Amino acid sequence: MTTRDLTRTSTPSTGTSATGTSTTGAPTSGALARRVRRTGPGRRTAALLTLLALASTTGTAGAVAAPTGAAAAVPTRYAHQQLTWQTCAEEATLECTTMTAPRDWHHPGRGPDITVAVSRHRATDPARRIGTLLTAAGGPGGEGLLRPADHVRNAPALGASYDIIGFDQRGVGHSTRAVCRTTEELRSFFAGDFRDDTPADRARVIAGSAAFAADCEQRSGGLLPFLTTEQTARDIDLLRALLGERRISYYGPSYATMIGAYYATLFPHRIERMVLDSNIGFDDTWERFQSGQPMSFQRRFEEDFLPWLAARDGVYHYGTTPAEAKAHWEARRAALHEHPIVDGRLTLGPNQLDNGTIQGIYRESNGFAQLATALTALDDWPGADPAARTTARRVFGDYLGPGFLAEYFAVTCSDTPWDRDLSHWAARGTENTARWPLVGARTLAFAAVCASWPTPTAPRVRVTGAGLPPTLMLNSVHDPATYYEAALSAHRALSGSRLVTVTGNGDHGQYPGPNACVRNVVESYLLTGAAPADDLTCPSPTTS
C-alpha cells in the first residue's frame, strides 16, 4: 500500500461534526492573519463557471458510466462563491482559503456541503508567469495543503513561473474529513502478527477488519461513499474555475497520479501540462493494483535495502551479505513475536517491525539509514543508544495514523469494486505470506476492510488520454509502492503519454530530487511545454 509518500503531513486543527462537515473554516494565523485581496467571480470567472457547468456532463462522454440523475450544471451557491485568502497558519509563505463543494457532485442538493482547504503560492516573478500549477498529495490519505511551499523551495524555477496551488482533498486534513478511530483504538488493528494463520487467527483478523469498517461508517456521518477519486476530480474543476483559469497544469505523485488521470479524463480540455510521478495502476481496479504490491515491496527489500545494509556491516552489524542481513531481520521478527518490546504505551511487535520496514524503504536517501539505525536499537533495547531508541520509536511506532487510514480505505474501497469472498482472501493471504511476507502477510486484514465496506457507488472512470496534450510520466524500476509493471500498464492506457524510466533506482517519487536528468526533462516540459518526442530513460546518479 502507499503510505505518506511525498506528502507533508500536519496535525489537523479543524473539527468534524456528526455529519462529516467541517466545523471550522480555513486554517489561518488567527488575529495575525493577513487579509489579502478577495477573488470574486468577475466577468472572466463567470464565463469560466458557465463552461464548468457544461463540462460537468460533457467532459465524461465515453469515459464514465454516469449515474442516473447526474447534475447538469454547477449550482450557483458553489459556482459564485468567493475565495478569501489569508496567510496560512502553518506556513507563512502560503495563502490559505476554503471552498464549499457538494458532498455528492451527482446529487448536489442532497446532504450537507463539504469544505475543501486550499493553499496558494504566487509566482515570484510575475513577468514570467505561465499560469497555475495544481499539486495534489499521495496516499490516499496524505495532506496536500502545505505542498506548494516544498515545491517553491525545491523547484524554484517553477515557483518563479507558476502560481502553485495545493489542497487537502475531501476526507483529510483541514477539509471535511472521515473519522474512523482514535490513535489508541487504531492500535488494535495492527496488534499481534499478521503472519499467524490458524483458523482462529484468521477469524480474529476478519473480525478486527469488519469492526474497523463499521466504526468508519458509524462515525463519518454518511460521508464515506463520496470520498472517491472521481468526486475529488470534480472538486478540482470547481477550484480551477474559482481561480479564474481556463486551463491548469498539474503535478501529482503516487496516488495523486490517479487523481490527475481521472481529472484529465473527465476534463481533458482543462489540462495545459501534466506530470504524473510514481504511478498508481489507474487503468484498472484498486484490487488488481494492490495485488501486485506484496511482490514489489519484497523486491525492494531484498534487492535494494538488504544489499545496502550488508555493505555497511561495519556501521550497523547486521551481516556482511544480503542473506545474512535477511536472516538477522527474520530472527529479530521471531523474537518480537515471542517477546514484544513494551515501551510505555507503545508495543513493538512483529507487525510494527513490518510497518517500519515498509515505510523505511520508500526512499533510500532519507529512509534506509533511519531504518537501519532503528533496527540496531531492537537488538538490545535496554542498552541501545538513546538516539537510536528515539529513531526506533518513530520508525516502528509512527505509522499510518487514523486520519490517513480513514481516507485510505474510503478511497481504495469505494473507487472500484472488490471481491468480497473472505475465503478467497484468506487463501490469497496464505500464499502471499509464503512468497512475499513483508506486505503479503497483511493481505487478509486490508482486503477484509474493503469486503466489509459500504457497497461502492462511484462511476467507473476509464482512462484513455483522449483529447489530452502529451503527458509526462515518471517511474523508477524498483519503486515498492507504485511498481513499474503497473506504471507500464497505465502508460499504455494513457495514450500520448511519455514515460521517463529511472533505472538503478527504487525510490518512490522522482521529482524534485537529485537526478539532473529527471529535473531537466520535467522543468523543460513544465516551463516551455516541450515534451520528449518518445519514452526515455534516466539513469540514477551514482551514490556512495
Can you give the mean pLDDT? 88
Sheet with most strands:
11 strands, mixed
Integer count of domains: 2
**The CATH fourth-level homologous superfamily of the largest domain:** Alpha/Beta hydrolase fold, catalytic domain
Distance from N terminus to C terminus (CA atoms, Å) equals 29 Å
Write the layout of secondary structure elements.
Blueprint: E1 35-39, H1 42-58, H2 76-79, E2 83-87, E3 95-101, E4 114-121, E5 131-135, H3 147-154, H4 156-161, E6 162-167, H5 183-186, H6 199-219, H7 229-242, E7 248-254, H8 255-266, E8 271-279, H9 286-291, H10 293-310, H11 313-316, H12 322-338, E9 341-343, E10 346-348, H13 350-360, H14 364-379, H15 386-397, H16 402-414, H17 422-435, H18 437-440, H19 443-451, E11 472-476, H20 484-493, E12 498-503, H21 516-528, E13 536-539
Parallel strand pairs: 5-6, 5-7, 7-8, 8-11, 11-12, 12-13
Antiparallel strand pairs: 1-2, 2-3, 3-4, 4-6, 9-10
Structure description:
This protein has 544 residues and is α/β, with parallel strands linked by helices. Helices cover 43% and strands 13% of the residues. The protein has helices at 42-58, 76-79, 147-154, 156-161, 183-186, 199-219, 229-242, 255-266, 286-291, 293-310, 313-316, 322-338, 350-360, 364-379, 386-397, 402-414, 422-435, 437-440, 443-451, 484-493, 516-528, and strands at 35-39, 83-87, 95-101, 114-121, 131-135, 162-167, 248-254, 271-279, 341-343, 346-348, 472-476, 498-503, 536-539. An eleven-stranded mixed β-sheet has the order 1-2-3-4-6-5-7-8-11-12-13, with helices on both faces. α10 (293-310) crosses α12, α14 (364-379) crosses α15 and α17 (422-435) runs antiparallel to α19 (443-451). The model is unreliable at 1-72 (pLDDT under 50).
